[in-house]
Amino acid sequence: MPRIGRVVLPNYPHHVVQRGHNRQVVFAADEDYRRYLADLRELKDAFGVKVYAYCLMTNHVHLLLAPGDSVAGLGQLMKALAARATRYRNRLEGRSGTLWESRYKSSVVQTDTYLLACSRYIELNPVRARMTSEAGDYPWSSYRERINTAGSNWLDVDPGFLALGQDPIERSARYEAFMKQATTADELRLIREALQRGQLTGNSRFVDEIAHITGIRIEQRGQGRPRTCREK
User: Fold this and answer.
1) Where is the Transposase IS200-like domain (predicted)?
2) Which is more confidently placed, 153 or 74?
């Protein structure tokens, strides 16, 4: 079967991961994290990309991004972020060479069914890695900004989060409860495999929807519907 190139669609959310070259450390100090987030905040507007969630880990980043009408913006954003971080690290350490893997991984995400699940997956990364016991204790993810009832001054509000309630207090409370629900093994497997293989994070209806748009049928294995915030 021929390899399908990366699928990027306008105005759809995409789960994106970029790793350090040979899994090397890319964030060695707090200033490294701060600079990356400052660049993300600046460049997202320059390239017309919405940022719904993020988590910066020691040797990789998870981002939940939605390009606008121009799909090129997503790739341009990732390229610019990587270039800035590389220049900074090379200057700091008096070195040359690449900091990141040349190709980031991405998966188009089904908004109504999997967007919140992907946000939770991203923001729970430090907990799964045993770096912290609570998502709210980790300073380099979007979780604190997401549940801040005063809102964020730069993070975009995704449709899934907006649908959780009538006001910021209700939405924040529901999302906190959602974060505490146990994530099923099927949900974890689907998100991971979709990202690793460049497939879709969604159900069979989403596969049909994307096939209609692109003319390409991107099948995946192990599909299952995650619980929503309103399900017990």
Assistant:
1) 9-125
2) 74
Tell me which H or E stretch contains 53: strand 49-56
Q: How far is CA 186 from CA 142, 176, 222, 225, in A?
A: 24, 21, 7, 8
pLDDT of residue 215: 84
Q: Which residue in this structure is represented by tokens 């449709």?
A: 159
Is the pLDDT at 225 greater than 60? The verdict is no
Averaged pLDDT, 20-35: 93
What phi and psi values does residue 48 have, to the nearest 5 degrees? 65, 40
29 exposure class (CB count in 10 Å sphere: 0-12, 13-18, 19+): exposed
CATH top-level class of 14-201? alpha beta
> What is the CA 76 to chain-centroid distance, rounded?
16
3-class state of residue 123 by DSSP: helix
pTM of the model: 0.90
Q: What is the helix (H) or strand (E) element at residue 34, kind and residue range? A: helix 30-46
State whether residue 162 is helix, strand or coil: helix
All structural domains of the chain with their residue ranges = 14-201
The position carrying tokens 């220049």 is 87
